[in-house]
Amino acid sequence: MEKILACLSPSPSNPKILRAAADMAGDGAELVALFVETPQFPRLANADRRRLQENMQIAEQLGAAIQTVSGDDVAFQLAEYAKLSGIRKIVLGQSDFKLSVLPSQPTLPDRLAEYLPEAEIHVIPDRKRGVYLPPQRTAVSKRRILMDVIVTLSLLTAATLLGMVLYGSNLSNSSIMMVYLLAVLLIAVITSHRAYSMAASVASLFLFNFFFVQPRYSLVAYEPGYPVSFLVMFLTAMIAGTLANRLKQTASQAARTAFRTRIISETDQLLAKAGSRDDILRCCAEQSAKLLGRGVVLYEVVKGDAFRRFAIPEDLAREENRTLPLTEKLSRGQEENWCYPIHLQEKLYAVLQVADHDPPPELPTQNTLTSVLGECALALENEQNAREKEAAAVLAENERLRANLLRSISHDLRTPLMSIAGNAGALLTDESRYSEETRHRLYSDIYQDSLWLMDLVENLLASTRLEGGADNLRLSTELLEDIFEEAAAHVHADSGHRVVTETPPDMLMVRADPRLIVQVLVNLIGNALKYTPPGSTILISAKRTGDTATVSVADDGPGISSEEKEHVFDMFFVGGNAASDGRRSLGLGLALCKTIVNTHGGEIWVEDNSPHGSVFSFTLPVEEVSENG
After folding, report:
1. If one looks up domain 467-621 in CATH, what number appears?
2. Distance CA 252, CA 248 (A)
C-alpha cells in the first residue's frame, strides 16, 4: 500500500498541509503524520503546545497514523524515516517569510531534496504569515532568561577577575585566553540557549582586549597579530560553545527518550505481575502519573455509561468512589481537562483524565501514554477473558456435577421406589395371605425406604439453599443444646444403637442457621449409624475454645482408614465398610456437611477415636449474649 508522509508541527497552517495530504491519500493510500522532536522542543510556548495538540487531533480525524522521531536536523530525520518506511511522497509547508539573514541558506524542502532526491516533495506555501510573530514568553521562560543572563555575566566577571590574578602573576596571555574559553564552555553547558555562549564569545574578546592587551583599558591593539588571535579565539569559543550546547540538548533529549522507554518497560513488567483488575487499573494510573509528572484520575467503566473513580495521588479523590455518566464525563473532560480512553477496538474499559493540563503534555509523551494505555487495555482484556474462561470452567464443572448427581439420583432412587411400590402392591393385593411377621417386615421396609428418601430430599434442599453462598444463610443466635435435641429427634435409631447427647457447658450460644446445622448433625449421626454395628454408642458433645465452639460426633465402630479420610468429604464418595444392609448411598451427606460448615466460616475434619472408632468435628462462631438482652 502506498504511503504519504505529512509533517506535523505547531504551525497555524499545519491543518492545511494535513488536509492536502489527506486529499492526496484518498481511499487507496496510508497517511502518516510525522512530528520531529528537536532539542528546542521543551522550550516551546504553551500556546504552540496547544496548537500542536489540536493539529494532532485533526490528523487523527483525517485517519493519519501519528508517529514521532527525535533529532536536531528536521530534514535528515524526515528523510531517514521516509527511507526506512518506504515512503516516496512527502507533504510539507514553507513560509514566505525568512528569518535568516543569510540569503543562501537552504530551506527545508531544498535540504530534504538533497537527502531524498528520489522522493516526490509537495510544498504547501504558507501565505498567511507576512510578519514574524515571536513566541510569547511565559513567566517561567522569563525567569529562565533572567537566570541565564545572570549566569553569563557572573562567569564572565569571574573569568575577568581570575585573568587579573594570572596577569599579575606574569603569566602569558594565552593562559588568560583559556580562562575565557573555559567560561564560554561553562556558559554553554549551564544556559538554555546557544545565543548566550555566542554572546559570551564576543564579550570575552572585548574584555580580553580591554583588560589585558596593551595599551590596557582601551579597545586598541598595536600588535598586528592580535586580530588573527582574536578571530581564532572567537571562532574557537563559538564552536566549542555551540558543540557543548548541542551536546547538552542531545543528552537531555536522550534522557527524555530513555525515561519514556523505561516507563513502557516498567509498565509491561508490572502488568505481567498484576493479579487482578484493580491491580491493572492502579498500575495504569500510577505509570501515567509518573510519565506525565502530574496527577491523574481514572474512571473505570462499571456498567453501561457509569464510572468508578479513583486517583493518583489519592488526595485528588477526597470524595468516595462514585459513578458519573459517560457522556457527561467525556464532554466535560474534553473542554476542561485532557481525557484519554482506555479501550480495545470498540470496547471501553476506562477513561484517564489528566488533572493539570497546563502546559499540555509533549506530543512524544502523549504517544508514550497512548502505548501505556494500550498495554493496559490489552491486560484488562486478557484479565476479563481469563475470568470468563474460569467462570465457564466453573459452570462446566457444576454442570458435570449436576449431571452426575442426576445420574446417581435416577439410578439409586429406582431401588427404594421399586421396593416401596412392590411391598405396597403386595399388601394391597392380598394382605390376608401374609403372616403378621411378614406384614410387619413389609411395613418396616416401606418405612425405612421412605426415611431414606426423606433424608435425600432434605440434603438436596439444603444444597439448593447453599447455591448462593453465605448470602442465603438465615443466621441467628441459637442455644447449642436446642440444636442437639432437634437433631436427635430427627434420627431414627431403631437398630440397637445408643445416641447419647452430652449437654454443652455454660449455655453455649452460636451464630448459625439452625436448620442447616441440624442437617449437619443429622448427616453425621446417620453416617455413624450406617457404618457402625448394632449396639454401638454415638456421642454428641461440644466445647468452647476461644471464640469458637467445637461440635463432635463420636462413635466406637470400626473407624475409617487413612486412605478414605482424604476423600470422605468429597462429593459422591462412598465408604466401603458399611455395617448396615449397604442398600445405597449417593455420597452427598458429608460433602454437604463440609459446604454448610465452610459457609458458616468454620472447619470440619475427621480423626480417630480412642480406643476405636471415628470422631467427626466441626467449628461454629460463638455468639455472646448480654444479660440485658
Report:
1. 3.30.565.10
2. 6
